[in-house]
Amino acid sequence: MKIALGPILYYWPKERVEEFYATAACWPVDIVYLGETVCSKRRALRRQDWLAIAGRLRDAGKEVVLSTQALLEANSELLQLEQFCGNGEYPVEANDMAAVQLLAGKVPFVVGPHINCYNGETLSLLAGLGATRWVPPVELSAVTIGALQGQRPAGMETEVFAYGRLPLSFSARCFTARADNVGKDDCEQRCIHDPDGRPLHTQEDQRLFTVNGIQLQSGTPCNLLGELGSMAEMGVDIVRISPQAEGTEAVVRAFRAALDNHPAPELPALDYCNGYWHGAPGMAWQ
After folding, report:
1. Distance between CA atoms of residues 190 and 207, nearest Å
2. Per-residue model confidence as pLDDT tens digits over 55-72
């Protein structure tokens, strides 16, 4: 089973992003996803910056995939999407059907977790358009994914989101800007001050969600380290680790050790969730 490093879901300064991937080049990951998937106003890195990072990671022996935005709201975002889909060098992860339309019949592509793919008929349709890998929506249970494994077309890989705060939804409005009582157009990219998102607590002080610009995430990270055996049994090909501001290398090495049947290092001491995997409320831990 391979390990993939998903796209950074938060807004980090350019220097921090470049330093992160320079370090990740030495980690035991097989696949690295690059690109902005949340908000087009996050412009610390331009297209050429992402391609430069991609080249360095490829030289380090990593498979590189360019990830696309999940919610498109303007013509400028569509133009940027067209540039990424037509890069001519790297495969692309489609997180919106607009990307699927641009890629269909031209080059193989990855179906990201934000594409609504819940049944074998949809898997077959996407495979016919050129998809060679799919990432199930994060709310699907192990039972459902296992059933779909028996229906997936030949040559279709399955990649499961196995660690990180779950990307749950997107909005045309910006949660971070609203929390600071400013308009979305006047946000000044203030989410750059929240490298792991902004916690949203209930009145009982339970961390319910994480606010990440226009994206809403789970309050605690999903952790499926203990489910690798069942994933192997159902034929999962890849596990995805979503980058966090701290401790990502330790997570990668723990997953690699577990996959190699070696003693795994301890994960960061956090509260975790895995409810969706067990068919329970997503915030639950079993």
Report:
1. 21
2. 999 999 999 999 999 999
